[in-house]
Amino acid sequence: MYGFDNYFVGKTAVVTGGASGIGNALAETMLQNGAKKLAIADFNKANLEKESARLEAAYPGKIIGIFCNVTLEDSVKAMLADAAAFFGGRIDLLFNNAGAGLNGSFTELTNEDWKKALDLNFYGALYGIRHVIPYMKAQGGGQIVNTISGIAWSPMALQSMYAVTKSALNMLGLTLRYELWDDNIKVNSATPGTTATAIFTDVKAPDYAQTPMQSATRILTGVRNNQRLICGDDNDLEGSKNAMSPDPAMQKGLDDYFLEVARARKQGNWRF
Predict the structure, then answer these.
(1) Rounded to the nearest 5°, which phi and psi values hold at 159?
(2) Pick the catalytic residue: 162, 178, 208, 257?
(3) For residues 75 and 176, what is the distance between their CA atoms, to the nearest angstrom?
(4) What does the alpha-carbon distance between residue 15 and residue 96 come to, in Å, rounded to a whole number?
(5) Active-site annotation holds for 162
(6) What is the pLDDT of residues 152-211, one digit of tens each?
(7) Quick check: helix, strand or coil at residue 61?
(8) Can you tell me the distance from the alpha carbon of 234 to that of 215, in angstroms, rounded to the nearest whole number?
(9) What is the per-residue burial (b if ≥16 Cβ within 10 Å, else e) of 217-240?
(10) How far apart are CA 177 and CA 183, in angstroms?
(11) Is 186 helix (H, G, I), strand (E, B) or coil?
């Protein structure tokens, strides 16, 4: 009846950034596969109300929408408390999915720009991890999934804030994977892969971009298998293997590629 080896049957889950894109697809896919109850948290009130109503109609009594500004620790803490109350006290899974793709020339970015980037893409997840751990320890375990990006190991010009924040989140999660292992709390890093979502605000998504549901299916398969690093598509998988290679020939190829990207973007061509 259910996919993913019944892994999500009877489980509760919180998804930040859950009112659109990949977060919404993650939530709906888990509901389709037997999740007990879901909380979608989002900053966009209109999307949150619309998607909560849509999912409630399809899965009565199984969904709650909670407004949350992940850049504020108190908001994240309160959101998790509301979700836990709706769930009956148990939070089995937390998907730290809220975030944004960030562009800009480094020389034009201010400290305020960097603070906003870190607050959204890094500290939002940190707050979630910090405040979900007590629930998970009390119940004997759980799972935390942090949405990163292939840019964590394939840095692209004019996206220094995006690369740095997602790299930091990746390392935070992978460090905590072992720190929390003996508490039976699993921690995974997941890239969405190239996916046609609202992250492509200024440029058209590439023709090869997958749908949010395709990305969610691949991510949730990795969650079920407790993969250390879940790659949302084959390009991210290939990049994770090669982007930090110390091999001189590989480094030369990477230099050539990333330089081509940089020059194209400086000319306004964001086809990469």
Answers:
(1) -135, 40
(2) 162
(3) 23
(4) 6
(5) yes
(6) 998 899 999 999 999 999 999 999 999 999 999 999 999 998 877 665 555 665 666 789
(7) coil
(8) 11
(9) bbbbebbbeeeebbbbbebbbebb
(10) 10
(11) strand
